[in-house]
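Sequence, please.
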């Protein structure tokens, strides 16, 4: 059985090419069925904004690359080969396994250590499973990839450090307040940064989120999405005394919170500290508020310093993760080698044992006067001879299993010993 993977990613192709090759979720079952019709024994299709990949297994006598080429020609049209030339990669056997393990462990992601790709890969596998498109070699590799990703997460800190400004903002709030549960958070601005911050807040346990935005409908939508409460933009300052953390990312061209504003707020809070995170450009909050006792302000530069330090640390953790992945690939290859040739080895051993037993029985009939001890010695001697004869072919079977060129050697041994 052959394993083959082809595709393109953010590393090899611009977004307009990735979009052309993308397989929409609604047509995924059709794509999986088509790959099987063309000769794939198994198929998994991973289609995200950053990568589109096709992993298949096929019988030894079938060329898996030809299956993918035919699929792309049928799916994308005859001009697809030239459109993707130089951008698409083809991996087989060990290299395909290594790639899948690295993708699952988020070592091949645009942001190393991000957790989304593992969920996307699991969804791709679940879709293939529901279509009956996995159930052999590829399924074993995919299952192992998920285990490898789990090991990388548990044994390294690759996913523990914030590498986006919005995530860093939430992590900074967690460092100051500990658990965010029970604290009131106000998000000013419901653009992409505000939405990402809200997502991270919910994942971090925050359960009291207020949202304000110049467009009231947008504030309501974001608040409902994260089970929070919308506040009218013209009156958000009136609720600041209830708020422990402010994350501001509005598009206002001027300060929306001044030193005087925060002096009033801290007085209403009776000097209870308030934490302000300004991730807007241009800034939303007057830097002078940092002079007020009990008011703590961090801007986007402060957060980017945290992000850059974390990126460097993730690089160190990624090196550890790469070593784990390589070790797991070696173990997987060794396992597959044994599984691939085990039936052939059993057949070879069974065939030689049948010959041995037949010859021993014929010899013993001609020598009826042998003692039990002498009969036992003949058994031991003939078994030793058979084991020595079998040792060479079995070693070659195990050594060549899983290698791209190994099938020729395995087929030769099968023909020599008349093994089906």
């Amino acid at each position: 059985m052959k394993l083959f993977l082809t595709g393109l990613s953010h590393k090899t192709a611009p977004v307009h090419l990735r979009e052309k090759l993308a397989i929409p979720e609604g047509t995924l079952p059709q794509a999986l069925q088509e790959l099987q019709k063309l000769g794939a024994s198994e198929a998994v299709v991973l289609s995200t904004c950053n990568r589109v990949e096709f992993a298949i297994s096929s019988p030894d006598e079938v060329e898996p690359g030809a299956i993918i080429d035919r699929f792309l020609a049928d799916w994308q049209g005859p001009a697809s080969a030239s459109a993707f030339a130089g951008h698409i990669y083809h991996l087989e056997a060990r290299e395909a396994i290594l790639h899948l393990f690295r993708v699952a462990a988020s070592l091949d992601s645009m942001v190393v250590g991000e957790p989304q790709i593992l969920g996307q890969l699991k969804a791709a596998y679940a879709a293939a499973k529901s279509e009956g498109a996995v159930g052999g070699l590829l399924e074993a590799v995919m299952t192992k990839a998920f285990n490898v990703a789990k090991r990388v997460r548990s044994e390294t800190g690759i996913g523990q450090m914030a590498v986006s400004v919005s995530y860093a903002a939430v992590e900074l709030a967690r460092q100051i307040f500990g658990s965010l549960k029970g604290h009131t958070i106000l998000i000013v601005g419901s653009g992409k940064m505000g939405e990402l911050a809200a997502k991270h807040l919910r994942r971090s346990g925050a359960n009291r989120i207020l949202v304000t935005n110049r467009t009231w409908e947008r504030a309501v939508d974001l608040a409902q999405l994260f089970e929070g409460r919308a506040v009218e933009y013209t009156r958000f300052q009136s609720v600041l005394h209830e708020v422990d953390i402010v994350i501001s990312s509005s598009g206002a061209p001027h300060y929306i919170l001044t030193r005087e504003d925060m002096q009033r707020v801290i007085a209403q809070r009776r000097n209870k500290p308030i934490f302000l995170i300004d991730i807007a450009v241009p800034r939303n909050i007057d830097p002078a508020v940092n002079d007020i006792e009990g008011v703590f302000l961090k801007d986007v530069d402060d957060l980017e310093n945290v992000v850059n330090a974390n990126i460097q640390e993730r690089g160190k953790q990624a090196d550890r993760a790469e070593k784990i992945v390589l070790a797991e690939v070696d173990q997987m290859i060794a396992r597959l080698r044994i599984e691939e040739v085990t039936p052939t080895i059993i057949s070879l051993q069974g065939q030689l044992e049948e010959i041995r037993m037949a010859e021993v029985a014929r010899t013993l009939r001609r020598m009826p006067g042998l003692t039990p001890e002498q009969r036992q010695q003949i058994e031991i001697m003939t078994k030793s001879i058979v084991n020595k004869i079998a040792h060479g072919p079995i070693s070659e079977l195990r050594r060549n299993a899983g290698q791209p060129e190994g099938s020729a050697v395995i087929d030769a041994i099968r023909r020599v010993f008349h093994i089906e």
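The longest strand covers residues 2-9.
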